[in-house]
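Z., the sequence and structure:
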Amino acid sequence: MKAPIPKALKERLTPAAQRLSGLIRDFEWTWTKAVVFSVGFSFAILISMAVIPSWWLYYADQRLDGWEPGIEVGARIAPLPHVFIDVGGWWKLVRIEDPMQRKQPGDVESKLVVAVGIGW
């Protein structure tokens, strides 16, 4: 079922939709438009493949050693046909010293999660 669009919003958007429809219908590729698009697309690809990952690596000062030792458990209970309750928790061994001095290496960090949901 589609949600109804309010009449005032539909009247306000009709001229913009007609202009956009005409622009798309009458669009024609010329060599200048193709060159401008190609340069812009190449620049976007260069940024997304070179600059962004380099920036991430520059600011990622943590060591990425692999998996942290820990365990995660959970259970789902369905008291009614379309209602469920998720209960779970995780425990992991702290390996990196916390800069705020809240956790030391060797401590066990834990969290309990309870969620209720409706599904159909």
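Residues 12 and 101 are 57 Å apart (CA to CA). The chain is about 40% helix and 30% strand.

Let me know what you think.
H.
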